Amino acid sequence: MAHRVEKMNSLVREIFSALLEQEVSLKQGVLITIAKVDTTPDLRYTRVSVSVFPEQEEGYALATLRHEQSRLQKALNSKLSMKIRPRILIESDHTEQSADIIEKLLLEIKQEVKDE
Q: Over 70: is that where the pLDDT of 1 sits?
């Protein structure tokens, strides 16, 4: 069962990545990357987490993706040759931003300990 989910995650990542490149037009300088793809065990839903660069364009990029979501879903469905085709849920991924914050805090703590 887990193998099917992993295979679906990989397939959706590959197809959705190509769709982002070919089908979604963003203003110049805005980049969207797929951070994570997570499919439910019943293969009915796939959560696609995206990272947006620069960060301040996240709202614009997510609004654009949500506006194009039904068209992207239809394109994805046409490329998947299986009975069950997962419904795509798009969300923002803040893992990298959180990691940066944690790293800065750890550096501050390290500096404070060094100064004592």
A: no
